[in-house]
Amino acid sequence: MAKKVTPGPKPAPATPTKVPAAAGSTLPPSVTPAKVQTQSTLSPRSSPQEIIVHVWNKYVQDTPSRTILLDVFMAWLVVVGAVQFLYCILAGNYPFNAFLSGFSAAVGQFVLTASLRMQTSERPPADASLVAKKTTAKTIDGVTGEIIEDTRVSTERAFADFVFGSLILHGFCVNFIN
After folding, report:
1. Given 10, 79, 120, 173, which is the most exposed site by the fewest CB atoms within 10 A?
2. Cα distance between residue 63 and residue 74, in whole Å
3. Which uninterrupted H or E stretch holds 148?
4. Can you give the pTM of this predicted structure?
5. Which has the closest alpha carbon to 27: 40, 16, 37, 18?
6. What CA–CA distance (Å, rounded) separates 123 from 120?
7. Number of folded domains in the chain?
8. Which domain holds residue 70?
9. Which residues contact 12 (CB under 8 A, 6 or more apart)?
10. Dihedral (Cα; 169, 171, 175, 176), 10-degree rounding
């Protein structure tokens, strides 16, 4: 005859233990320290470092990866424009048309990218239905009582406008060099 096995008490889940780290030592790759939990809100007496870390964590947590990619590209354009301006100050601006063309290309591309970011990273309200997210929003003007349609541009159309504007911008910049 088969024996009936009754389950015993469940074992307690294993809790991670903190590994004390000596000063100047590093943990081996097999040991991963527990992730530090950050506060969800800040107190009025928070230090500037806590505020910066909180803002950075919320940005990384809540921002879509496409928007972060646009932000990185915009930061790169700022660096390129700053290097060109610094070079113009330190080394001189003999081919002034070349400096103006390169600096204008960096600034113009930054503006076009900022426009693309604004058009593609808007989030509709959480309580809006799927149909309302894809169509136009209609509001009534409080003064005149007219219906105002707030049309939203699709992300594909915004990217096409970005590419078209970039081609025109760089076409002008290349022609301005000569």
Report:
1. 10
2. 15
3. strand 147-150
4. 0.62
5. 18
6. 9
7. 1
8. 66-121+154-177
9. none
10. 10
